[in-house]
Amino acid sequence: MTSEVRSRDSLLRELDELRSQLTGFQAAEASRSSTEAQNERQAQSLAAVSRLAIDLAAAPPEADLLSLIAESLRGLTGAMAVSISLYDQDSQDLVLTTVVPARPYLTRLASLLHRKPLGMRFRVSRELYQEMLDTVLRFEKTLTATTFGAIPGPVSAAVQQAFGIDYFAGLAFCHGGELLGSSVLVMPRGVQIPPDDVLKLFAHLAAVSLRKKRAEDAFQRRNMDLERLNAAGQALNASLDLDQVLVTVVRQIRELLNVQACSVWLLDEDSRDLVCRRAAGAHAAKVRGWRLSPGQGLAGSVAQNGKSLLVTDTQCDPRHYPGVDEETGIQMRSILSVPLRIKGKMVGVIQALDSRPGRLGTGAVPMVESLASSAAIALENAQLYENLQERLRELSQAQTQLVQTAKMAAVGDLAAGVAHELNTPLTSILGYTEMLLEQTPSDARARRRLEAICRQAAKARDIVRSLLDFAEPHDYIIDRVDLNALLQQSLLLLRQRLENKGIIILEQYEPNLPCPAMDASRMKQVFLNLCINALQAMPQGGTLTVRSELCGDGVAASFIDTGEGIPAENLTRVFEPFFTTRAVDEGTGLGLSVSLGIVQAHGGRIEVQSKVGAGSTFVVWLPLEPPPQEEPGLKAPTKQSRTAEDKTTVGEGSRKAGRPWRPKR
Q1: 547 by DSSP, 3-state: which?
Q2: Which residues span the domain enclosing 129?
Q3: Are residues 278 and 184 in the same domain?
């Protein structure tokens, strides 16, 4: 009995030992299986990372790199969805760029956010930036706590409940101490995520690819920018017209930066104000001509310190002048201001503007500065060309005036000789004809013939007197004269004749005009000639407007008719002696020449504007003070103002065309 008990106890002990060994074997087997499974998962993860590396290396330039990374990360982790945000260095935001799979997550997010999720921005503080560099990987139960790209709390809770989300993983893509982007992994229940070192390896690999892609994109953008700048420079140099150059500048900058508006402000050398010479964008017409005083607004600040200024949000910069925004009704939030210099001299400011904050980044500064240099050269060339054209016009006008002066002097000499030669026989003819008329009965047939001879001889005598008035100087009696009164007196002499021809007279006199120094009788002759000229230009009637006004340091009398007008080819000849387009018996062609001489002798000028079928305007300008006394025989200085295509101005002519001043006796 005792031996049986001992044998049973021994068997039990052996059985316990066997059980213990079996448990050890089972534990070892379980550990070995777990290790093998873990090793297998790690091997699979590393294989996925290797495949990603191969795929990224083999991906063509046009491949969607972000989608490739997101799909690989989703396959590696078993995540329900993966989002990728890229870091914007200028705005310091994470920008949601890719979500995989797009459906149904983007649709549900859009309905909850009431906007499209892609393009959403998440501000990254300095602390968060450093935390992402240090941590790289982070797990959170709620998306609002995830520091790698969160969305509003209520939306996050609704999304988490709707899709049965267990937790979130945030993965930062960092390389070389720089944040390139981040990813948020939406993890379902029951899925085991790969080891941390595998995820960090994946993040490092993705960051390298993103950095390489960023460098390639930057290189391509740089090449494109250089091509655009080259094209812009060629466009700027294609024209020498100042306005066209300004139009090209604003158009090229808008195309280059894809901004809403652009403007060019040029410096007024007298007031030192900035004047908006050209603008493009909404309500650009309201901005043109706007003036900014020195130092006013962002443009004024740049004009003063001569340095480019980028403001990503004008609401945070007190230098911004809101007056222009109030005028246009558009609040510009992002503004880049670049100085315009010609040979080191500040001449203006170029501005690129957009209503979206952060729209313009630091990369736009060198681009616009380069374009500003080309624009400054084009502006200088346009200004030089404009100055050259002005000089050529002045030279052409001076040459025309010299020819006119010489022509009038020669005609004057000829007219004086002819007039003296004709004066004696005409006097004899008139005298003998009048004697014969006295001796001839009124009913005699010969009397009508004698009267005709007398009329024609008297007409010839008047022509000779006009020639003498044109050719020979006479004393001028100078006094202060009321211009308005003199114009009224001149019209009074012709009013009945004008009204009989169906001509309406409009008188517009500026009150309280200063009295210029003039010879009243000679100037009345000028006014009468101009009124008769208007009468002949309106054979079917019309309107004659006589106007007086203060003009600079002188006064002006204007005679505006609605007649036939003067052809452009005749505008420069209307003051030539004997030039007329009228019938032979309607004028001698000396009226305007004599008038010109009188006005020039007063130190004034006559301007004429005309359009065929619309009428003509003659403006007589007289200085308030008489010109200085001239010695006999000297020519008066010749001066001709700018001549437009439909405008002729005749200034002070030669002595033959005018009269030297004589002091009043």
Answers
A1: strand
A2: 59-220
A3: no
